[in-house]
Amino acid sequence: MKTTYSVAMSGDVHRSLADYLIRKDRQEDLCFATYSLSQGTNRFSGLISFVILPEDGERAVHGNVSFSAAYFERALSVARSRGEGLVFLHSHPFPGWQFMSSDDIKAETRLSIGAMAVTGLPLLGLTIGSDQTWSARFWLKHSSKRRTYVRERCNSVRIVGERLTVSYPPENSKRILNHELLLRTISAWGEKSQKDLSQLMVGIVGLGSVGSMVAEILVRKGFTNFVLIDFDRVEAKNLDRLMNVYYADIGKLKIATISKGMRRSKTARSISIREVPYSVCEEKGFRAALDCDVLFSCVDRPWPRQVLNVIAYAHLIPVIDGGIKVLTNKDNTAMKGADWKVQTVGPGRPCLEQWGQYTSALATLERNGSLDDPDYIDGMEDKSVVEAKENVF
User: Which 8-state DSSP code applies to residue 233?
Assistant: First the structure.
C-alpha cells in the first residue's frame, strides 16, 4: 500500500502557533518548529513538538515575510539537539487549505537541503490560513537525483485537544454522501461534519462484544475507513454476544467474520477495511494503530490498555475507551443492573491509568506472562482482574 503523509499537533501547540502567525494587519508571518516522527505501517506522520519563535532581527515583515540565515541556523541547531526534524511554518491571509506560491516552493526547496543534511529527516512545511486551517507537505529526497527534493502533500493535519479537528485537501470536500440511507444521521450534525467523520481512519482494537458493536454502529453511521486489530478466533462461547458472528464462523479470525458483516451493513457507497491479525502489543498491531486518526479501545486487559494509553499521548491519536459492567445478586440468580463507562483520552485529558482502567503493575504482570500462569494467579490476593466475568450482549 502506498505511504500516506500526515501531521498532528496538540491543541496547545496549535493555539500558540495560530496566535503568532495569524496577524491582525493581514500580513504574512513565519516561524520554525521541530517535529518527532510517528511511523505507522502505511502512514508517515510528523508530530509538532517544539516551537522556535524568532528573536529580534531574525525576521522582517513587509507584506510578505523574510528571515535571516542566523534564524535558520539556530532552528537547525535546536532540531539537531532534540534529535527531531525541522518544520517551517508561515501564514497566508486567506481562509481554507492553502496552496503554495512559486516563492513558497523556492523557499522550502532551499530549506529542505539543509534540514536533511543536519537532522537526517525531511523538511516539513506548514501553511495556516486566516481561519486556522492548516495545510502541510514533506520534502523527500529524490531517490536518484542529487540535491533534489520532491514535495509530498499531507492528506490531513490533525489538532488533538478538547476536540479533534482535522484539515483536509479541498478535493476531499467533494465526497458524495448517501443521503437516502444517512438522512437521519446527517440531520443530527450536518453534511460537513458527516463528510469529516467519513474521512477519518478509525481503528478498533479488540473485536469482542464491545468491539463488534462499535464496528456495526460506525459502519451504519457512514464511516468508511477502518483498521480492525485482533488476533483472536471465534469460539462457541462468543456466539451469544458478538455481532455478525455465526456458528459456521467458529475457528475463524474475529476480524475476518466481523469485517464481512460490516460490508453487509455499510451505508456509505464504499468502505475500506484493513484486517490486522495481531495484538496491539505486537509490533505489527502497534504500527497499524499508528495509521489511525482515532482508536476505540475495546480490550479488557491491562497491557493493551497501557499500550493504547502511550499511543494517545506520545503519538497524538485520541483513544475512546469503554466497557460494560453487569451487576448480579450474590447467588447469580438475577441481574441487578448494568453500567456503561466511556472516556476519551489524549492531550489535555486524564489518562487511562488515572481513570483506573489499568495499573502499571498489572500491565507488567501481564507482559511477563504472570496473569496467564495458574500458579501465580492462585497466590494473588486480588483476583478480580483475571476473574472478571465476560460481557453479555
Answer: B
Angstrom distances, CA of residue 220 to CA of 36, 181, 182, 257: 36, 9, 8, 17
Confidence of residue 340 (pLDDT cuts 50, 70, 90): confident
Contact of 293 with 201, CB cutoff 8 Å: yes
Query: Are 1 and 337 spatial neighbours (Cβ–Cβ below 8 Å)?
Result: no
Question: Which residues, other chains included, contact 72 with Cβ-Cβ below 8 Å and sequence gap of 6+?
Answer: 32, 111, 114
Cross-strand bridge partners of residue 50: 34
pLDDT for the residue 326: 80
Q: β-pairing, 294-297 with 201-205?
A: parallel
Would you state the cell numbers that stand for residue 164, as one nine-digit string? 479533534
- Residue at 144: amino acid letter: S
For cell 464511516, name the residue.
223
Q: What is the pTM of this model?
A: 0.91
Residues 227/214, Cβ–Cβ less than 8 Å: no
Distance CA(269)–CA(222), nearest Å, equals 9
309's grid cell: 494509553
Q: Are strands 4-10 and 30-39 parallel, antiparallel or unpaired?
A: unpaired
Q: Which three cell numbers stand for residue 57?
A: 532581527
Q: In terms of C-beta density within 10 A (0-12 exposed, 13-18 middle, 19 or more buried), how is residue 378 classed? A: exposed
What whole-number distance in Å separates Cα of residue 267 and Cα of residue 182? 7
**Residues counted in the chain:** 393
